[in-house]
Amino acid sequence: MLGPVILAASRSDKMRRFISAAPGTKQVVDRFIAGETVEQVVPIIEDAADKGLEVTLDVVGEDITTPEQAAAARDAYLELVGRLKELGLGTKAEMSVKLSMFGQALENGHELAFANVRPVVEAAAAIGTTVTLDAEDHTTLDSMFAIHEELRKDHPQTGCVIQAYLFRTEDDARRLAAAGSRVRIVKGAYKEPASVAYQDKAEIDKAYVRILKTLMEGDGYPMIGSHDPRLIAIAQELGRKAGRKLDEYEFQMLYGIRTDEHIRLAAEGHRMRVYTAYGTDWYGYFMRRLAEKPANLLFFGRSILTKG
């Protein structure tokens, strides 16, 4: 039951100040955030490549209130693409973007977000990599899916994320599985009302399996975003039953969580991608990681107590 409370705190300026000032915060943030700059994250990409892993990179930051900030977010991703090109790492690192960073919530936000994300997708394609549009709260999804559909006209490899806890997602999955697109399935990490989303963990897990079965049996490329050993095993079985080869789907896990499992899956021949966030505006991302798993919150609490 702590998850909704933590998600509410993620929108509180007072809690942001308190958490940022807490003596143990940096230790925990460093566990989930790879660095603040492109240069700090480059060694992590190279190390992952050496271990047979791939990455998806997220420049964290969601509190965009002006078009200028949205343009700066776009430019941060373009800088990232340029650095990946210089290092020849384009095929080992894709990018994940939140359209809220590109101005989706501002006036004429749909058009603004599309205008900002398009050059990032084009630049990524030019170096042989891809972009995935992250899912945010349910009120943003129609816009996200419309932008996804438009981007795929010229760049069909553009991916998107669907969230198992939303009632609408089974219909979304059927549509996307038939489109041959890249689809990451996650449980969902935003506070959603009971009118649009399952609230019970068991129901969310059941929905996740149903949706994953649809993706595995479809024509798209499923990306399984989960750290749950049971769901990972189910995904492997569904892949076998659907006749998929190991390179016809992939697993994705967060940087700093279950690192040994990253290596194990890659060693078995699976494509394994590490979701790697970096940047200075880490608070919202960090709070969602705490909300997703009680063990993360306990780790944070112990860090504060031992550093206080």
Give a description of the structure:
With 308 residues, the protein is an alpha/beta fold. 52% of the residues lie in helices and 14% in strands. The chain contains 13 helices and eight strands. The chain has an eight-stranded parallel beta barrel with strand order 1-2-3-4-5-6-7-8, surrounded by seven helices. Helix 6 (109-126) links the parallel strand 2 (93-97) and strand 3. Helix 8 packs parallel to helix 9 (201-217) and helix 9 (201-217) runs parallel beside helix 10 (229-241). The protein starts with a helix and ends with a helix. The model is unreliable at 303-308 (pLDDT under 50).
General form: globular
The biggest beta sheet, please? Answer: 8 strands, parallel, barrel
Summing up helix and strand content along with how strands pair, one would put the structural category as: alpha/beta
Rg, rounded, reads 18 Å
Strand content: 5-15%
Oligomer: single chain
Q: Note the total helix count.
A: 13
> How many distinct beta strands?
8
Mind sketching the topology for me?
Layout lengths: L1 H8 L3 H9 L3 H8 L5 H13 L3 E6 L7 H21 L5 E5 L11 H18 L4 E3 L7 H12 L6 E5 L5 H9 L4 E5 L14 H17 L3 E5 L3 H13 L8 E5 L4 H9 L3 E8 L4 H10 L1 H14 L1
Parallel strand pairs: 1-2, 1-8, 2-3, 3-4, 4-5, 5-6, 6-7, 7-8
